[in-house]
Amino acid sequence: MTGKKIIAFLTLVMVLGLQAVTTLDARQIDDISCSEAIVLLVPCVPFLTGLGQPTPSTSCCEGAQNLNQKADTTQVRRDVCECLKGASMKFGVNSDRTKQLPQLCNISLSFSFDPSIDCNT
Known about the structure:
Layout: H1 3-24, E1 28-29, E2 32-33, H2 34-41, H3 45-49, H4 58-70, H5 74-91, H6 95-104
Antiparallel strand pairs: 1-2
Family: Belongs to the plant LTP family.
Function: Plant non-specific lipid-transfer proteins transfer phospholipids as well as galactolipids across membranes. May play a role in wax or cutin deposition in the cell walls of expanding epidermal cells and certain secretory tissues.
Keywords: Disulfide bond, Lipid-binding, Signal, Transport
């Protein structure tokens, strides 16, 4: 199996796993649901898990930027944080990659996202 086929297969597995995650946590996060937030970041899964390229794809950065724009209040950001924190544990993301994503996608955040972050601070 070639590298691209492996990435495509793993992405499919992640999307199917996403269905299970969103079924468990389908609450609405103000203007964006938890499942919508996760779907926006699905293109980032290969980068965030360390199975893809050393830099995020264009579609990953577009999704992350879109999510950042939609999470425009403190409460929405906290809710998205809790959602992504839970999803990151289920998907097994690399915490170093989560910290790199905002900078690599030119997103200005006042905090560093880490799966162990306290979303209330």
